Amino acid sequence: YVSVPIFIAIWYGMIWFFALVFKMVDSSNFNRDKDCGLAEPGNPITLSAAYAFSLETCTTVGYGLPGSANGFFNSDCEGLQIAITLQMVWSMLSNAFLVSFLFAIMSKSETRSIQIIFSKKLCVNVVDGKVCINIRCYDLDCAHPLVECHARLYLIDHNMKFHPLRLLEPNDDLGGVLYPSAPTSIIHHVDHHSPLSPTRMPLVENPHGLALRSVDSATASREEILCPVCGECYGTYERLAKHVKYAQIVEEQDDYPIEGTHREFELPDTTPVSLEQVQRHIEHSLSEIVVVVEAIDPQLSGTFQALQSYKYDDIEFGADFERCMFTKGDKFLVDLLKFHGVVYNDAMYYSSASFRSGGNNDDDKCTPCTTTVSEEGSSKTSG
């Protein structure tokens, strides 16, 4: 909104600049009595005629000179030839810049990010015994699916330091690729490597500053649990326990001494963190959680980012998102009235409510409810 008027003002100022140049060239002692075509010999061109000629030169190439002669082709009118050449060069450069400038403005994709919506709440729940945080996002313009859509998640602590949160879904080992044309979840597992975890698990190798995931160790992508006796590494505590049990049988059979062997080793407490522990840690350490969705607009081929942040008041513990996508015939419908809705799971909700209130009273054991936040527009239909 500001750049275009400024460019037009510069362009218009150059028209007047070259008008003065033409007037100076025609009024100079060298060209005053020559018939170069700007005006009659001995009668220099007026400023208004010089402006008209400058405007004509800047906007076209095929034209006639104001005077009767075509002095541009005369060998003794070098000053006029140089001035016209400079203005035509300026005109070509300004036209090229204006075209590229307008194309850059029209091809900006920043406004595409407003069509990516995020859930108003961040849910922290327990899935398969794992504490996870869950964010929902959706592309309102699902008729034009985004290209190479990726998601990233960050924790900002009270010291304003960014900590990356590894993603379980979509798998960030595969690039964290999303398909937001349907409501999609962004899930982070709060394991012992997560900055959201209040404790660190025993016998785990030092990550040396890397952001790791325990699921990679559990799926044998790497091994991080160290046996303190023999130095062997295992992916899970279950595998370590089997190793220790087998080694104890062998060592007892071979009459190994107890001290310094597997016969002496006892597996420490490996209970994973609970929802209450995570909630307490988040309450005291969290500044905000930021989710970044980056994609390419298929219509303009430009990259854009959509961001959303969540503070402690935006987090729902022991809750999951309400179902918001339904099918009708050969189409699916997304109910935006339910997109932000959360539903509390019985066990998780009661546990979190008891923790929040500091006790177990009858008021805590309320009927699980559904909270729905309205959004403009009731539904979105896509083929």
Automatic annotation (TrEMBL):
<keyword id="KW-0406">Ion transport</keyword>
<feature type="domain" description="Potassium channel inwardly rectifying transmembrane">
    <location>
        <begin position="9"/>
        <end position="108"/>
    </location>
</feature>
<protein>
    <recommendedName>
        <fullName>Inward rectifier potassium channel C-terminal domain-containing protein</fullName>
    </recommendedName>
</protein>
<dbReference type="InterPro" id="IPR041647">
    <property type="entry name" value="IRK_C"/>
</dbReference>
<keyword id="KW-0633">Potassium transport</keyword>
<dbReference type="GO" id="GO:0034765">
    <property type="term" value="P:regulation of monoatomic ion transmembrane transport"/>
</dbReference>
<dbReference type="InterPro" id="IPR016449">
    <property type="entry name" value="K_chnl_inward-rec_Kir"/>
</dbReference>
<keyword id="KW-0630">Potassium</keyword>
<dbReference type="InterPro" id="IPR014756">
    <property type="entry name" value="Ig_E-set"/>
</dbReference>
<keyword id="KW-0407">Ion channel</keyword>
<dbReference type="InterPro" id="IPR013518">
    <property type="entry name" value="K_chnl_inward-rec_Kir_cyto"/>
</dbReference>
<dbReference type="GO" id="GO:1990573">
    <property type="term" value="P:potassium ion import across plasma membrane"/>
</dbReference>
<dbReference type="InterPro" id="IPR040445">
    <property type="entry name" value="Kir_TM"/>
</dbReference>
<feature type="compositionally biased region" description="Polar residues">
    <location>
        <begin position="368"/>
        <end position="383"/>
    </location>
</feature>
<feature type="region of interest" description="Disordered">
    <location>
        <begin position="357"/>
        <end position="383"/>
    </location>
</feature>
<dbReference type="Pfam" id="PF01007">
    <property type="entry name" value="IRK"/>
</dbReference>
<keyword id="KW-0472">Membrane</keyword>
<keyword id="KW-0812">Transmembrane</keyword>
<dbReference type="GO" id="GO:0034702">
    <property type="term" value="C:monoatomic ion channel complex"/>
</dbReference>
<feature type="domain" description="Inward rectifier potassium channel C-terminal">
    <location>
        <begin position="280"/>
        <end position="347"/>
    </location>
</feature>
<dbReference type="Pfam" id="PF17655">
    <property type="entry name" value="IRK_C"/>
</dbReference>
<dbReference type="GO" id="GO:0005886">
    <property type="term" value="C:plasma membrane"/>
</dbReference>
<comment type="similarity">
    <text>Belongs to the inward rectifier-type potassium channel (TC 1.A.2.1) family.</text>
</comment>
<dbReference type="GO" id="GO:0005242">
    <property type="term" value="F:inward rectifier potassium channel activity"/>
</dbReference>
<keyword id="KW-0813">Transport</keyword>
<feature type="transmembrane region" description="Helical">
    <location>
        <begin position="6"/>
        <end position="25"/>
    </location>
</feature>
<feature type="transmembrane region" description="Helical">
    <location>
        <begin position="88"/>
        <end position="106"/>
    </location>
</feature>
<keyword id="KW-1133">Transmembrane helix</keyword>
<keyword id="KW-0851">Voltage-gated channel</keyword>
